[in-house]
Amino acid sequence: MGDATSVQGFARDRNAGVRATFESNLASGADVGASFCATINGETVVDLWGGFADAARTRPWVKDTIVNVYSTTKTMTALTALLIADHGELDFGAPVARYWPEFAANGKARVKVSHVMSHAAGLSGWKEKVGKHDLYDWEKMTSLLAAQAPYWEPGTACGYHALTQGYLVGEIVRRITGRSLGTVFREEIAKPLGADFHIGLPASEDARVGELIPPPPGQEIGAGNQSELQANMSNNPGVDVGETRTRAWRGAEIPAGGGTGNARSVAEIHAILANGGVAKGKRFLSEAGCRKALELQIEGQDLILGQPVRYGMGFGLPGSMLPLPNANSMFWGGYGGSLVIIDMDARATYAYAMNKMVGTTSGDVRAFSLVMAMA
Questions:
Q1: Has this prediction a pTM greater than 0.85?
Q2: Where are the domains of the chain?
């Protein structure tokens, strides 16, 4: 069995408080297995992991344990789009239909790429009935979105595109590059960095994947009173945490929620954005290309999340949903509690990935307590 509180990895002396907080989350049962990583000026200053990779507590969470991080995947998808834009191949101000002509159907000719990046395209879900296995059918999911009318006038409001955003951004990237989003991400970002994050996990890596433990009954997505729009996002298709244990889910490219990695890979990849486009001595983007992410696209009450948000180009920006100490910061979290914060002013990244889920789509107190302990 081993000791659930035996934490591996390192934290610099001045960050010893992070280790204590991480240990206490495991000791209290708040976490079963988890990882936390921080980088400053491109250098990894905290890299911790511990606990168990499964609900039965038979497999230790080891250095290279990886786990599905749900919507924290969106940050990798946004980074890939920022990269393509920085190469001059994608204009965020252009209509989606410039790259994907079929998308112009049903009144969407003027929907911009920036609307898709900021959850403002009016396509928060599918109008046709779809099942969970349809998520593995790229052609079907993208064709349905291209054909349907928006739920609201694009650009006038935001509503979290929980699953649809990945197909939309991914298809734009595919039309431009001729490669799937997961392939571009792997070839242009993950592989050159040696980063262990996957949008479409090879079967060879299955043995390393931690088992997600679903939130308690009544806390899952779709619980409680919902508007018609919220219910559409929650139930069409419904979120089945058990599906993340299947080869089909892991191998599929679901760029809004299917990514597999750990805190180290998330923090070290986003060091690109925190450090003006450079990570591990390699330049990936220009400084201006990184700062595009900070450009406020829309703010207000999110029609799906039901809370005030501020969206930049693919990331959440500091505000009442998540106050951050520095203005030039951004973040996003995943269903269950995973989180990444990128602080361009401090040139820092903070990432948390775990297997015990709570009922949140935007990070939770465990992640924030670890980030606070960095101060």
A1: yes
A2: 7-323+338-372
